[in-house]
């Protein structure tokens, strides 16, 4: 593919309420995932693996954590000539003062239009970050080029029983075209349907068409999200529907976030996501090797570097720089970077955010459907401080 | 460009005493400690000491080393005023610039050094494991108004027989140099680390190579010549952890020391980090059947067997029923099922077939070379 043919917009303005407290101080796209990644790394890696060099990242607020992670884009090969990474912060309309909002009518999409015009690309792909996967965007572009519809969208075929009301699905015609993107609850799934087309929130179209969609929205004075515009585009035009067949997990609430992490502990999923010919890139860190002490037991689990493991860990995702003291028992847990677990503490079905300190001889217990969540930087030293999830 | 002190890392040696491990690569590129290569320690010391112009002189099998160093970004050495330059021998109207000894290597790269125009030249080896502040050594060099400062490390009488020994007066001025003495008079062994006043060294080298070409090696020729001409040569005592990893035995030993949480190297010290070219790889995966004790493991390892008091580097896999004990396994090695690896160094991308045994001992470490295949039956 010729250099500069495709540009990408990765949209971090996504619903985050169901993921609090993990999303109190970060957008969904910055959620740590899989031992060393952020959700944003997956669409970003897909883009660069397809040779895309013009990438726009829109963030709801200041995007401090996003800039910290991406910096110049070097770790994704995006600090390059004729392209690179473009950050657009403060896109969350709920945070905008009414006066400011007034002035944004007819101008809300100006930055995006400017980015697209300057990219001189033929095609643009719009992606979200709450769908973990490793998609071959080159194949998506070929699929699009071979068909007539102006928009191509992407789905993962799943067992309808696995869909929750919060998931969105593509309404497909007999010929496999998408006519709408709707929440499962509102979808007209025929009773005996064996497959549901789970929406991946990926939209591909010509850059000219996307600019037109945005200019139209500006003219109408529509201040709705980019994602809404994409869904409208699918409805207006009927879209090609591309089936993605790799590992996929949708993260929309605490349970689905927890399950997505547990899912990659299955070796087949882990390999499909991380060991295809398309690598997942992330910010490079210089951690030391992880040390497993005498008497430690670390099984069926993932671990980042920089860790110090003395206790027992089973079926868990342990991020970088985690300290697990002697005699502790950890099972079905997601423990993010920099967290320390005291000696003799028992943990099961728990998500622990970054840099938390959990004292010795405590019991932290959630359920698979309702994992207990410990917030970023929280220090817990007494059992009474463990707030079980309501 | 005018940098006060330019660092030169001598990374051209073949490292013949590392046998199979350096058959296809330069010694400084040999993996160490799970996620490093030997030269990372020296490069990181430069970066941490604020020596941000560094020339790396290569000669023997440089490709892996070149790929590792790249533009120096991994060490923050891709800066605006210097950075890392990999120096390969090249040809000129005077002939080809291959070199024989350490001082000759500097002479052959005099054009690069002149380009940088430093006041002081810091000469380093690329094959030592240590953390050292070269800026502190430079302050000492200036305070002593020295022409040459030699980094020294205390060694026992027995060890002294393997080193160049510096005999000093009460002000630490070096009055005598003895190469591998039978009866050492001091405990100050040269670490092969020097700070020279560049204009002075330049004069010595130019004169020598215009006449008898005698200044081939720093230890053997330059230091004695400096002493004979009454230059002020001082010893700078380094008290930290320092290991020369020039032999199979010492490389294995230093790796085993690295494993200890109490190792004096203090690899986890955030104020003096050791950087390396970090490949972005998935996290390590330890399966249901793994049993890991007293060991260090890094990204992209896959462990289904037992690992005891060993280091696994990136992308190493250990199959079910296998046992890796007192060993260091280099990146990309694949260890099959029911394998025994004991007291061994396993080279990069080596393949150890099912049921194979690689058995060494504390006195004789077993070595499997790069890409070597052990115990896989040919179809």
TrEMBL record, chain A:
| Residue intervals of the Glucose-1-phosphate adenylyltransferase/Bifunctional protein GlmU-like C-terminal hexapeptide domain | 297-363
Keywords from the UniProt entry: Glycogen biosynthesis, Nucleotidyltransferase, Transferase
Q: Which GO terms describe its biological process?
A: glycogen biosynthetic process
The highest taxon in the source lineage is: Bacteria
Q: Where is the Nucleotidyl transferase domain?
A: 17-161
Among Pfam families, the record links this protein to: Hexapep_GlmU, NTP_transferase
Q: Which SUPFAM superfamilies match?
A: Nucleotide-diphospho-sugar transferases, Trimeric LpxA-like enzymes
Molecular function as annotated in GO: glucose-1-phosphate adenylyltransferase activity
Task: Tell me the protein family, please.
Answer: Belongs to the bacterial/plant glucose-1-phosphate adenylyltransferase family.
The protein in question is named Glucose-1-phosphate adenylyltransferase, subunit
Species for this entry: Lactiplantibacillus fabifermentans DSM 21115
TrEMBL record, chain B:
Family membership? Belongs to the bacterial/plant glucose-1-phosphate adenylyltransferase family.
Write the Enzyme Commission number(s) for this entry: 2.7.7.27
General function of this protein: Involved in the biosynthesis of ADP-glucose, a building block required for the elongation reactions to produce glycogen. Catalyzes the reaction between ATP and alpha-D-glucose 1-phosphate (G1P) to produce pyrophosphate and ADP-Glc.
Which stretches make up the Nucleotidyl transferase domain?
7-258
Q: Which keywords annotate this record?
A: ATP-binding, Carbohydrate metabolism, Glycogen biosynthesis, Glycogen metabolism, Nucleotide-binding, Nucleotidyltransferase, Transferase
Q: What is the lineage of its organism?
A: Bacteria, Bacillati, Bacillota, Bacilli, Lactobacillales
Which pathway does this polypeptide act in? Glycan biosynthesis; glycogen biosynthesis
Per UniProt, subunit arrangement is:
Homotetramer.
Give the domain of life. Answer: Bacteria
In the UniProt record, does the keyword Transcription occur? no
One of its Pfam families is: NTP_transferase
What's its catalytic activity? alpha-D-glucose 1-phosphate + ATP + H(+) = ADP-alpha-D-glucose + diphosphate
For the site Could play a key role in the communication between the regulatory and the substrate sites, which positions are given? 59, 98
Q: Name one GO molecular function term.
A: glucose-1-phosphate adenylyltransferase activity
Which terms does the UniProt entry file under GO BP? glycogen biosynthetic process
Where alpha-D-glucose 1-phosphate binds, per the record, is at 164, 179-180, 190
Cite the NCBIfam families for this sequence: glgC (TIGR02091), PRK05293.1 (NF003670)
Indicate the enzyme's highest-level EC class. transferase
Q: Which residue ranges does the record assign to the Glucose-1-phosphate adenylyltransferase/Bifunctional protein GlmU-like C-terminal hexapeptide domain?
A: 289-358
What name does the UniProt record give this protein? Glucose-1-phosphate adenylyltransferase
